[in-house]
Amino acid sequence: MVTLRAFALATHLGPTVAVTLVSTLLAVAAGLSGGRLALLCVAVLAGQASIGWSNDWLDADRDRAVARADKPVVQGAVEPSGLRTAALLAAVLSVILSLALGVVPGLLLLVLVASGWAYNAGLKRTAASVVPYVTGFGALPAGVVAAAPGTPVAPWWLVAAGGALGAAAHFANVAPDLEDDRVTGVRGLPHRLGPTASAVIGALLLGGATAVLVWGLDDVPAVARWGGLVLAVPVVVVAALAGTPRFRRLAFPALMVLSVLVVALLVAGGAALT
Length: 274
Prior knowledge:
Layout: H1 2-10, H2 13-30, H3 34-58, H4 60-65, H5 72-75, H6 80-100, H7 103-121, H8 131-146, H9 156-174, H10 178-183, H11 189-193, H12 195-216, H13 222-240, H14 251-268
């Protein structure tokens, strides 16, 4: 049980669950159901697990150097070689399951997986660190919608909102680790801009993404649309304050919760994405 728990935590459990849940809710809005809905859910879950495991495998030495006590590999609960094996197996599984949905939706869903691996493999250390988040989370809703009967094309605003949310997630995700990252030579875009500028940019991206998403679903009842905007306000404020020590660790979890709640609210309001 200890080993299983370690592997589960090493997937970056919070983001993995949030992304899988948002994808599943979007799939429901796109018209998927039954076995096809379950297939998409498991495909996204496998891809997210592979990204999380590859991150902790590739960053094992760096995490040990800065004594990241929250990492199972630093705790000694799992070995990097075990994470490598799990990451590769999960990646293969995600390819098989994603393509089982069809070539177009499969390839779009795999853009997120490839983007996550590219980030872990080295892009996180460059000024282009935000690019995998934009491409990956922009392609995700497009892949979900394309998995619906008839392979429909996702509306532009849904792709734009996904990319903006992904970029906001990047700025919020690295905020707590800026100092540790600098020590180990990681200098992505947020590190180069600094905590204050990164927090402001992340907040603007988050607010803009929510506004675009709510605006695009003009056939959803006003109460659901306004509800999404109301939910976004406190999270945007927290994101804007992520450059300060007090709020640094709150921005990313708040963003994940907001993403799930907004999509759930829109689905409950009768959102139709196709």
